[in-house]
C-alpha cells in the first residue's frame, strides 16, 4: 500500500489519505519532513510548476524554501503521538501571496474525521482537538553564488501560476507574526503575567553534521532545524535534571519557526534557550530558541514552543 493517495478538490486544494509508516513518525523530524513534501507536491500539482525541479529565467535552480512553519496541536492529536499504522486524512489548501511566495494550510486528522474544505476563519480558531493545524509560508530562493548557502536571494521559477488561488484574509496573514519574530527574536508578544523564568540564557553549540543534516542540493534541510531544536531542548532539559523518558513524554501544543538563513556544511550553530513555566502549573512551559551561526553571528532561525513537559497532564489552553 502506498504511503498516501491524493485527489484534487478544487483549484487550490488537494486531499490525501495517508498510512503512517516507520519512515514518517517517531521522536524526530520525519513527520515534519512529510508535511514539507506535501506542500511541495500540492504546489507542483496546482500551480503548473514542478517544485522539485524548478528553474528561474536564467536557468538556475530555484527552491521553494520554508520561511515560516507553524504547527498547532492538542493533547489528543499531536505530532509526537503518531505511530505505525495510523491512518490520516490530510487536506492541503494554497493561498496566493504573489509570484515569489505562497502559503499552504494543512489540516491533519484521523481517518474519517475530515471536516470538509479548509476555511481560513475556521482554521485559525484551532478549535478541533482531533486536528493538527499546519501553516507553511514558503519563498522561492536561489543561491547568489555557487557552492555557498549564505546570502540566498528570492527568485521565482519560470511558469509559476498563482493568480487562480484565493487570497488569505488580511487578519490571518502570517506576515505580522514572522516579522515580529524576525525583529524581536521571539514569537512571544511580551511575557504573560502568569509566567516565571524556568531558566534563562542556556547556550549550546551544534556542529552541522554533513552526513545527516543536508538535503540533496547541499542546503541545511528545513526539517533539520526541527531536529536541532529538539537536540538543544533535550540538553536544556538535562541541565534541569530531567531524564530522557520525560523528554520523550512531552507534548508540543504549539511550535512556531521562522527561517532567516541557511548554513554551510562546516558551520557550527550556537543555540540560546530561554524558558518560562506557568505559575501554579509546573510542566506547562513556553520555550524560546534562537539559532545563530557561531562564527559570523548571523541569526538563522527563531522558534517558540508551548510544551507540556509532563505529557498530557494539563489543558491545551
UniProtKB/TrEMBL annotation:
Positions of the LnmK N-terminal domain: 16-187
Keywords from the UniProt entry: Acyltransferase, Transferase
Keyword field contains Kinase: no
Domain of life (superkingdom): Bacteria
Entries under Gene3D superfamilies matching the protein: Hotdog Thioesterase
Annotated GO MF terms: acyltransferase activity
Record-given protein name: LnmK family bifunctional acyltransferase/decarboxylase
Protein species of origin: Sphaerisporangium aureirubrum
Amino acid at each position: 500500500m502506498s504511503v498516501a493517495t491524493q485527489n484534487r478538490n478544487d483549484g487550490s486544494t488537494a486531499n490525501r489519505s495517508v498510512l503512517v509508516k516507520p519512515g514518517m513518525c517517531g521522536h524526530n523530524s520525519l513527520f515534519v519532513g512529510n508535511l514539507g513534501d506535501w506542500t511541495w507536491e500540492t504546489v507542483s500539482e496546482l500551480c503548473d510548476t514542478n517544485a522539485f525541479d524548478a528553474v528561474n529565467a536564467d536557468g538556475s535552480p530555484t527552491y521553494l524554501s520554508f520561511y515560516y512553519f507553524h504547527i498547532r496541536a492538542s493533547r489528543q492529536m499531536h505530532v509526537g503521538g503518531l505511530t505505525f499504522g495510523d491512518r490520516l486524512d490530510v487536506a492541503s489548501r494554497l493561498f496566493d501571496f504573489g509570484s515569489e511566495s505562497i502559503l499552504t494550510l494543512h489540516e491533519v486528522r484521523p481517518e474519517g474525521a475530515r471536516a470538509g474544505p479548509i476555511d481560513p476563519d475556521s482554521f485559525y480558531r484551532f478549535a478541533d482537538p482531533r486536528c493538527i493545524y499546519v501553516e507553511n509560508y514558503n519563498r522561492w530562493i536561489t543561491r547568489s553564488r555557487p557552492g555557498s548557502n549564505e546570502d540566498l536571494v528570492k527568485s521565482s521559477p519560470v511558469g509559476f501560476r498563482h493568480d487562480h488561488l484565493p487570497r488569505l484574509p488580511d487578519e490571518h496573514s502570517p506576515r505580522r507574526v514572522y516579522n515580529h519574530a524576525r525583529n524581536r527574536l521571539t514569537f512571544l508578544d511580551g511575557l504573560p503575567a502568569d509566567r516565571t523564568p524556568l531558566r534563562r540564557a542556556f547556550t549550546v553549540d551544534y556542529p552541522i553534521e554533513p552526513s545527516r543534516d543536508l538535503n540533496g542540493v547541499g542546503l541545511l534541510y528545513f526539517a533539520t532545524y526541527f531536529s536541532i531544536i529538539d537536540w538543544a531542548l533535550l540538553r536544556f532539559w538535562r541541565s534541569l535534571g530531567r531524564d530522557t523518558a520525560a523528554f520523550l513524554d512531552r507534548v508540543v501544543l504549539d511550535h512556531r519557526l521562522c527561517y532567516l538563513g541557511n548554513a554551510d556544511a562546516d558551520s557550527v550553530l550556537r543555540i540560546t534557550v530561554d524558558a518560562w513555566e506557568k505559575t501554579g502549573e509546573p510542566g506547562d512551559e513556553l520555550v524560546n530558541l534562537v539559532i545563530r551561526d557561531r562564527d559570523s553571528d548571523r541569526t538563522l532561525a527563531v522558534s517558540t514552543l508551548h510544551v507540556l513537559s509532563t505529557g498530557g497532564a494539563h489543558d491545551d489552553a
